[in-house]
Amino acid sequence: MLDLNDIGLFVQVVRFGSFAEAGRRLGIPANTVSRRIQELEEQLSARLMHRSTRKLKLTDAGHELYSNSAAAVDGLQQAGEDLIAGARVPKGLIRVTMPADFFDFYRMEWVAEFLTSHPQVRIEFVLSDATVDLIEEGIDVAFRGNATHGPNYVVCKIQTSSIGLVASPSYLAARGTPATLQDLTRHDCLFVPQARDYATWRLQGPDGTEEDVTVTGRVMANTAQAIRKAAIAGLGIALTPILGTADFAAGRLVPVLPQYMRRNLGMSVVYPNRAHLPLAVSAFIDSVVGRIRAEIISAQVDT
Question: Of 238, 263, 281, which is closest to residue 97 (Cα–Cα)?
Fold first, then answer.
């Protein structure tokens, strides 16, 4: 089988006019260049060039090979250079999965700014609270509260936060404000549906000890976004991630029993472990992480 590298080398020898010059340009000893061209001639059973001390002269076979292969060699060279250049510029489709309520605190304006800065990038968002197999589903990166661990994934913590009890002012005005954790048993609570019609919440009290309370309610939902919106609508008390103060600042929600929290939760960025992370993916990760951390710092300053 012909070695295509030798055909490429032959094209360069023709262009540079001598074995010595081709070797100098390509970083190959001139005698190695000459030997490889001789081996190519043997494989083709045809002399490609007449050699003299001053210059090389192509034979008819050499002319034919050069005219038929030079454009192809140039195309391969250009394809390689384009790939190298493209590796330095974020480009291509990024598939991102995240919780259904992600855009409640991550602004679409930030996505627009990222796309403006990287015009060759496209993004597909897969919004779901379910944990998916990133590799099987062809997902490039995930932003999760419950991060998947294992040798096939890279997991980086973005920030830590807490889960706390919240309700709307209208609900508390109508039903009263719980004074103790056990008071929740007499309230409508919002939770993720399971095989039973109640939920058990484990919360950490002000002294650091954990307490359980079993709650019921008339509304259940399988996403944090739906539970948050139900709480804003006055349908019950929710145990929800506290990622920002926007709902509190706007008066849509207020804390309930703020001395009880579920701590050490937060968000992580997860992506498949691979030798070379696409530049578009790493650029998007840096953008999201930078924005979220800046928002956390801003919220801490404001409070």
Answer: 281
- 20-45 tens-digit pLDDT: 888 888 888 989 998 999 998 998 89
Q: Three-state DSSP class for 117?
A: helix
**Whether the model pTM is above 0.70:** no
Paired tokens of 158? 């973005």
Closest Cα to residue 36, out of 73, 66, 11, 54?
A: 11
Q: Which pLDDT band holds residue 252 (cuts at 50, 70, 90)?
A: very high
Residue with tokens 């889960």: 163
Coil, strand or helix: which one is 275? coil
Nearest to 189 by CA among 138, 249, 250, 236: 236
**Residue 16 in contact with residue 33, Cβ under 8 Å?**
no
The Cα–Cα gap between 92 and 118 comes to 10
Q: Which ranges constitute the DSSP H helices of the chain?
A: 4-16, 19-26, 30-44, 60-87, 108-117, 134-137, 169-175, 224-232, 246-249, 279-302
Burial 255-290 (b: 16+ CB within 10 A, else e): ebbeebbbeeebbbbbbbeeeebbbbbebbbebbbe
pLDDT in tens, 45-54: 999 988 875 6
- Say how far apart CA 28 and CA 259 lie, in whole Å: 74
- HSE-up of residue 275 (Cα within 13 Å, Cβ side): 0
DSSP label of 172? H
CB neighbours of residue 228 within 10 Å:
21
Q: 221 with 192: CB under 8 angstroms?
A: yes
Contact (CB, 8 A) for 40 and 48: yes
Residue 178, sorted as left (phi over 0), alpha (psi -120 to 50) or beta, turns out to be beta
Q: Name residues whose C-beta falls within 8 Å of residue 88's C-beta, 6 or more positions apart in sequence.
A: 279
